[in-house]
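Bit of a strange request maybe. I'm writing a small parser for structure token strings and I need a real example to test against, not something I typed by hand. Could someone generate the tokens for this chain?
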Amino acid sequence: MFFAALLGVSLVPVLMVLFIRGKITPEAKNPINRLLIWVYQPFVHFVLRFRWLTIFAALVVMAVTVFPFKKLGKEFMPPLNEGDILYMPTAVPGISVSEATKVLQIQDRRLREFPEVEVVFGKAGQSETSTDPAPLSMIETVVKLKPPEQWRPGMTWES
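Reply from user aminoacidic:
Good idea to test on real output. This should exercise your parser:
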């Protein structure tokens, strides 16, 4: 972000001198700008004429947003019970590859023992992408569940 700002301040003016040739038409001659100015100007005049009303309206809108904000709770995302669970335990930092593999296999085997589980996929450490900076101690396991009709009697999503 710093380099983008630096280039915007230093390189762009030089490139404008090199590439922009000829007469630059004023904005009042551009039909799109004329339309936008025509639409925008009444709002600007109203806001500048009635400053206190504008400030009061902004404060009222801000005060009204407090009530929905308090109703959001701790988590805005609704629960999505799509039949899969992402289980992400962490192991001891500095765990060896062989130990992480062993822990992952034991964990997957234990999860498969539940009759509601269909398939378990586990991964320890980072994948072959630069966007996954997970250490070896981070284990990601996707548990695919069977349809709820095939679960034991009395078993619910919460339990």
